[in-house]
Specification:
Residues 20-332 form the Enoyl reductase (ER) domain. The protein is of the alpha/beta class. The chain has helices at residues 51-57, 130-143, 161-170, 182-191, 205-212, 226-233, 265-269, 285-297, 314-321, and strands spanning 5-11, 24-30, 38-47, 76-83, 93-96, 103-107, 112-113, 150-154, 174-179, 196-199, 217-222, 236-244, 272-275, 305-309, 329-333. The protein folds into 2 domains: 5-126 and 304-333, Medium-chain alcohol dehydrogenases, catalytic domain (Quinone Oxidoreductase, Chain A, domain 1, Alpha-Beta Complex); 130-279, NAD(P)-binding Rossmann-like Domain (Rossmann fold). Bound molecules: NADP nicotinamide-adenine-dinucleotide phosphate (NAP) and 3-(4-hydroxy-3-methoxyphenyl)-2-propenoic acid (FER).
Length: 336
């Protein structure tokens, strides 16, 4: 890689169904010079997240969607290489939504500082970043679990799910994870301390939930939708709560999503279903970040990162994320 060239991944075409390599194209440009009030940053880690599939689709969203030729949306952890601002000095680590890009000159006030004392800087877009915040607020502010509640979380070994289950344990819940392989299930139970896990690819999720929690599921943190959610809906407890965090099983659907199919199940149980966005709680993120950092130091929260080396590998890794190939928070390591 030449240091004189900045590379960015753009959306070359809109995917129909599962994205393919042809939907992405590299665009090269010269590395910019920061103007007054700007900083030049170099990406260390690019965060790959499921929401990016939605940006490629177009249609209504809380955020602008991508047009053909636009740089792929994304947040990076980056190092300040040049500074024309008193806000940051060379060598500082920041977070910024510059997209899938190696370098950028940005207004310094738009960068968020990453505190290296809280943990490895990669965690700034992982357990201490957007996914960690999502887990914290979706669980504690949307589901509001009580000690003794049964909490089910789907995509349980992933960036969000792993944190949900562990905060559930800290709050005295009986935690059941649902994940797509035995290895991921074993990890949630043996490493993260979940009470049980169900492999939705090989087990009957509804029957397993009925066996593990005969009094029903009080809280369901839904990351996936589709058949896994159908199975959970069959097992809800009276006055249960469902937080709709994500519906990843539907993101590659070529046709509009079908279902949820068994809404009638919610009548008898008087269930509340609530969607949320991590940004709804933005003003409280710093408090959550500090608490999660403390729990990591105390050994009460563990995290796993799936680090793919090389900027050129971003599209392939992203396609894998939508298929369950990642095991832990997916990151691209872009530079040292
Ligand atoms: P992740 O769990 O680290 O990775 C995605 C995982 O989804 C895959 O590893 C795979 O795990 C699972 N998956 C893929 N296809 C599936 C399918 N058809 N059925 C069931 N599971 C499937 O990703 P994450 O970053 O933590 O995100 C998890 C969810 O949270 C996503 O739906 C995302 O959109 C959502 N989210 C929402 C917000 C918000 O503000 N509302 C913020 C962040 C994330 P398995 O191998 O276990 O299938
Ligand atoms: C996500 C899935 C969906 C996410 C945001 C959305 C921040 C928002 C969707 C919309 O605006 O329609 O993982 O993460």
């Amino acid at each position: 890689m030449s240091d004189a060239v900045n590379r960015a991944w753009t959306m070359a075409s809109r995917p129909e169904g599962e994205p393919t390599a042809e939907n992405f194209a590299i665009k090269e440009s010269t590395i910019p010079e920061p103007k007054h009030g700007e900083i030049l940053i170099r990406t260390l880690y690019l965060s790959l997240d499921p929401y990016m599939r939605g940006r490629m689709r177009g249609g209504p969203s809380y955020a602008a969607t991508l047009e053909i030729g636009d740089v792929m949306t994304g947040e990076v952890v980056a190092r300040v290489e040049k500074s024309e601002s008193p806000l940051f000095k060379v060598g500082d680590t920041v977070r910024s939504s510059i997209g899938w890009q190696e370098w950028a000159a940005i207004p310094a006030h738009t960068a968020k500082s990453v505190n290296p004392e809280l943990g490895p800087v990669s965690t700034g877009v992982g357990v201490l970043g957007m996914p960690g915040m999502t887990a914290y607020f979706g669980l504690l502010e949307v589901l509001k679990p009580r000690a003794g509640d049964t909490l089910v979380v789907s995509a349980a070994s992933g960036a969000v799910g792993a944190v949900v289950g562990q905060i559930g344990k800290i709050n005295g819940c009986f935690v059941i994870g649902v994940a797509g392989s035995d290895e991921k299930c074993d990890y949630t139970v043996n490493e993260l301390g979940f009470d049980a896990a169900i492999n939705y690819k090989t087990q009957d999720v509804s029957a397993e939930l009925a066996r593990l929690s005969p009094n029903g599921v009080d809280c369901y943190f839904d990351n996936v939708g589709g058949p896994v959610s159908d199975a959970v809906f069959e097992n809800l407890a009276l006055k249960s709560r469902v937080a709709i965090c994500g519906q990843i099983s539907q993101y590659n659907a070529a046709t509009p999503p079908q279902g949820p199919r068994n809404m009638a199940a919610l009548i008898r149980t008087r269930t509340t279903v609530e969607g949320f966005l991590v940004y709804d709680f933005e003003l409280q993120h710093e408090v959550a970040r500090a608490r999660i950092a403390d729990w990591i130091k105390d050994g009460r929260i563990k995290y796993k990162e799936d680090v793919v080396d090389g900027f050129q590998n971003a599209p392939e890794a992203f396609i894998g994320l939508l298929n369950g190939k990642n095991f832990g928070k997916l990151l691209i390591k872009v530079s040292e």
